[in-house]
Amino acid sequence: MSKAINRTISVAPMLDWTDKHCRYFLRQISQHALLYTEMVTTGAIIFGKGDYLSFNSEEHPVALQLGGSDPTDMTKCAVKAQEYGYDEVNINVGCPSDRVQNGRFGACLMAEPQVVATCIRAMQAEVDIPVTVKSRIGIDEMDEYEDLTRFIETVAHGGCDTFIVHARKAWLKGLSPKENRDIPPLLYDRVYHLKEQFPHLHISLNGGVKTLDDAALHLQFLDGVMIGREVYSNPYILAEVDKRFYGDAHQVKSRVEVVMAMLPYIEQQIAQGARVWNIARHMLGLFQGQAGGRIWRRYLSQQGTKTGVGSELLTDALDQLLETQQKAATFLQY
């Protein structure tokens, strides 16, 4: 059985989005939500020249999402992940892109549950951290509930006890990855039924969760909820997560305090060669729904990509936002 991680609320792995800068930023808002990396392929980790596994210690709990299907390579990468200090390794069995299919990983592996089970077995023999699976509810014509339960049974027999299930099927041909996130209908009942049929497994749901009330509803039937795009576009949604779902009533940073907390990190990262836009782009939605939120986004977008820009990008944008809020408050007094 996997080492216990409280995965009640997690933030989905999102390619080009949930990098280490994004995760550090989100951790300023929630101390407990489980964060996932972007999907990293075994080839990149084993043969790539860059360091694809680095992360900030403040990001814990943090999980590596891994793309691959060769048990030997998957095991090598799981061992590296454990050495780096990751809290979990998650196998991607949900991405439907052509590039991923050509590499024989992602959603196409739903047609090969025994391959996934073999990887799980090999990885768990060498690491102590949990090895989990993120999948769809089906692919192409293999989209009946019986197909899903066959996949879950086979992979669970390989030793996996934790599944994150995106409640949409994936079309491997005919739909783009973006269309696969929107067009196939969400079938939450199928994920609920999985938990009923496999009560000993930890089942989390992903797909279409836009509010914490949505999450609370799903948690009446399931063990966890993974939120994706809504967190990225409106990151301050995480502000109530710790108190509401983890019973932690610590004082949550205000949006302004989050900005100020990011300044030392930005200076540190710039000193190591990062560009401020690499970090600021993840913060565009921080003031979503707030007076001045549009000004914040516009200032970061227009000024953040210029050369020589430092952490003053955030303070200057914040000054403009606060000035707008002050004007709005003065107007309302009259």
From TrEMBL:
<feature type="domain" description="DUS-like FMN-binding">
    <location>
        <begin position="11"/>
        <end position="319"/>
    </location>
</feature>
<keyword id="KW-0285">Flavoprotein</keyword>
<keyword id="KW-0547">Nucleotide-binding</keyword>
<dbReference type="InterPro" id="IPR013785">
    <property type="entry name" value="Aldolase_TIM"/>
</dbReference>
<feature type="binding site">
    <location>
        <begin position="206"/>
        <end position="208"/>
    </location>
    <ligand>
        <name>FMN</name>
    </ligand>
</feature>
<feature type="binding site">
    <location>
        <position position="166"/>
    </location>
    <ligand>
        <name>FMN</name>
    </ligand>
</feature>
<dbReference type="Pfam" id="PF01207">
    <property type="entry name" value="Dus"/>
</dbReference>
<dbReference type="InterPro" id="IPR018517">
    <property type="entry name" value="tRNA_hU_synthase_CS"/>
</dbReference>
<feature type="binding site">
    <location>
        <position position="65"/>
    </location>
    <ligand>
        <name>FMN</name>
    </ligand>
</feature>
<feature type="site" description="Interacts with tRNA; defines subfamily-specific binding signature">
    <location>
        <position position="294"/>
    </location>
</feature>
<dbReference type="InterPro" id="IPR004653">
    <property type="entry name" value="DusA"/>
</dbReference>
<feature type="site" description="Interacts with tRNA">
    <location>
        <position position="92"/>
    </location>
</feature>
<dbReference type="InterPro" id="IPR035587">
    <property type="entry name" value="DUS-like_FMN-bd"/>
</dbReference>
<keyword id="KW-0560">Oxidoreductase</keyword>
<feature type="binding site">
    <location>
        <begin position="13"/>
        <end position="15"/>
    </location>
    <ligand>
        <name>FMN</name>
    </ligand>
</feature>
<keyword id="KW-0819">tRNA processing</keyword>
<keyword id="KW-0288">FMN</keyword>
<keyword id="KW-0694">RNA-binding</keyword>
<feature type="site" description="Interacts with tRNA; defines subfamily-specific binding signature">
    <location>
        <position position="297"/>
    </location>
</feature>
<feature type="site" description="Interacts with tRNA; defines subfamily-specific binding signature">
    <location>
        <position position="178"/>
    </location>
</feature>
<comment type="similarity">
    <text>Belongs to the Dus family. DusA subfamily.</text>
</comment>
<dbReference type="GO" id="GO:0102266">
    <property type="term" value="F:tRNA-dihydrouridine20a synthase activity"/>
</dbReference>
<feature type="site" description="Interacts with tRNA">
    <location>
        <position position="181"/>
    </location>
</feature>
<comment type="function">
    <text>Catalyzes the synthesis of 5,6-dihydrouridine (D), a modified base found in the D-loop of most tRNAs, via the reduction of the C5-C6 double bond in target uridines. Specifically modifies U20 and U20a in tRNAs.</text>
</comment>
<keyword id="KW-0521">NADP</keyword>
<keyword id="KW-0820">tRNA-binding</keyword>
<protein>
    <recommendedName>
        <fullName>tRNA-dihydrouridine(20/20a) synthase</fullName>
        <ecNumber>1.3.1.91</ecNumber>
    </recommendedName>
</protein>
<dbReference type="GO" id="GO:0000049">
    <property type="term" value="F:tRNA binding"/>
</dbReference>
<dbReference type="GO" id="GO:0050660">
    <property type="term" value="F:flavin adenine dinucleotide binding"/>
</dbReference>
<dbReference type="GO" id="GO:0102264">
    <property type="term" value="F:tRNA-dihydrouridine20 synthase activity"/>
</dbReference>
<dbReference type="GO" id="GO:0010181">
    <property type="term" value="F:FMN binding"/>
</dbReference>
<dbReference type="InterPro" id="IPR001269">
    <property type="entry name" value="DUS_fam"/>
</dbReference>
<feature type="binding site">
    <location>
        <begin position="228"/>
        <end position="229"/>
    </location>
    <ligand>
        <name>FMN</name>
    </ligand>
</feature>
<comment type="similarity">
    <text>Belongs to the dus family.</text>
</comment>
<feature type="active site" description="Proton donor">
    <location>
        <position position="95"/>
    </location>
</feature>
<feature type="binding site">
    <location>
        <position position="134"/>
    </location>
    <ligand>
        <name>FMN</name>
    </ligand>
</feature>
